[in-house]
TrEMBL record, chain A:
Keywords: Membrane, Transmembrane, Transmembrane helix. Pfam families: PhaG_MnhG_YufB. GO terms for molecular function: sodium:proton antiporter activity. NCBIfam families: CPA3_mnhG_phaG, PRK12674.1-5. This is Multisubunit potassium/proton antiporter, PhaG subunit. Residues 102-111 have a biased composition (Basic and acidic residues). The keyword Transmembrane applies. Residues 112-121 have a biased composition (Acidic residues). The chain crosses the membrane at residues 12-31, 43-62, 74-92. Residues 102-131 are annotated as: Disordered. It comes from Modicisalibacter xianhensis.
TrEMBL record, chain B:
This is Multisubunit potassium/proton antiporter PhaE subunit. The chain crosses the membrane at residues 7-24, 30-51. Coiled coil: none annotated. It holds the Pfam family MNHE. Keywords: Cell membrane, Membrane, Transmembrane, Transmembrane helix. It is found in: Cell membrane. Belongs to the CPA3 antiporters (TC 2.A.63) subunit E family. It comes from the Bacteria.
UniProtKB/TrEMBL annotation, chain C:
GO terms for molecular function: sodium:proton antiporter activity. Pfam families: MrpF_PhaF (PF04066). One of its GO terms (cellular component) is plasma membrane. Signal peptide: none annotated. Keywords: Antiport, Cell membrane, Ion transport, Membrane, Transmembrane, Transmembrane helix, Transport. This is Multisubunit potassium/proton antiporter PhaF subunit. It is found in: Cell membrane. The chain crosses the membrane at residues 6-22, 34-57, 63-83. Belongs to the CPA3 antiporters (TC 2.A.63) subunit F family. It is a multi-pass membrane protein.
Amino acid sequence: MIGFYTVMEAVIAFFLVAGGTFALIGSLGLARLQDFYMRLHGPSKTTTLGVGCSLIGSMIYFSLTNHTLSLQELLITIFLFVTAPVSAHMLAKCALHQKLPHHDRTQGHPEEFDEELEDPDTGTPSSTPAP
Amino acid sequence: MIRSRSWLPIPLLSVLLLIVWLLLQQSVAFGQWLLGGFLAIVIPIVIHPFWEPQPYLKRPFLLLRYYLRVLVDIVIANLQVSRIIVDPRRRPNPAFVVYPLELKEYFTITILASTITLTPGTVSAHLRLDGKSLLIHTLDVDDPDALIKEIHERYERPLKEIFEC
Amino acid sequence: MLDTALWISLILFVAAILLNVYRLAVGPSLPDRILALDTMYVNSIGLIVLFCIWLNSKTYFEAALLIAMLGFISTVAVSKYLLRGDIIE
């Protein structure tokens, strides 16, 4: 039985450290990359997975210490994974609306930068749930 | 599948609400079932008038497979993005890509856009006014056409099979 | 082993939040700052979870859930405000 608990401890430790590392890398991307559109990638993917890893680690921990299945963390994880793309999409729309400059190496030039958008939102099904 | 009735307008939402309530309370006592069931019946009735009808789920098992695939892709995507962020010598090739949509329902487009944001190297940025194309920003891409093809094969076709055909 | 892992993870999360504060202070544009705030919310959820393991109690999970919801809603509301100049039309 001791072997089992040691292995589980290692698994929890792995998830916690992996979570912290991913969160740090996401924030590093936020601090280091050159333009806004590139910065968006770090937090929306990496930080979400980092916190998800920590939550899964804590789920295993509390399931083992309390001898009952602890599913509350799963709820938070799912919520984070559902909402992260939506807020990333809203922020990207925002940046396009404000015509933030993009890096010189960026290929492709969307027409959103040229034309004056009269009403960027009406009729578009954004990722937010319909009102 | 449970049919909707007048006192149970959106059955799947009711089931989801009950499950979430029980998970939040961390107990399966009789009182929690009662209160959760009450909320699961009353909330859908209240919000039914402004609830958009969702497309009918044709093949639930394919949806499960889709979820598993997306889960694996999220991990791969994170390793890729981490490598790009951490390696200081690497100069990424970002690009804006216009992705032509075949899906028509807003709900499935939302799922596709969220999937694109969470999976390798891409953030969906803007849905065009006509709702027929998606503007995607990619962090590191060499060949935009190959990317469009990959997204189509990997995500859009399964979604089309699950919801629309 | 768990204590060491907890310490390492705490240090990493705090460093992440410091980087977010840097971007929040420097960020050349408004969306940059909103993005930094949003990331800070997510990172603080991670901190709360680690704190829960530290104390061996689940009392603070409700707080984590509330921060997740409020962070998401405030991010969307501020983005909406930047897009339209109005939150509820």
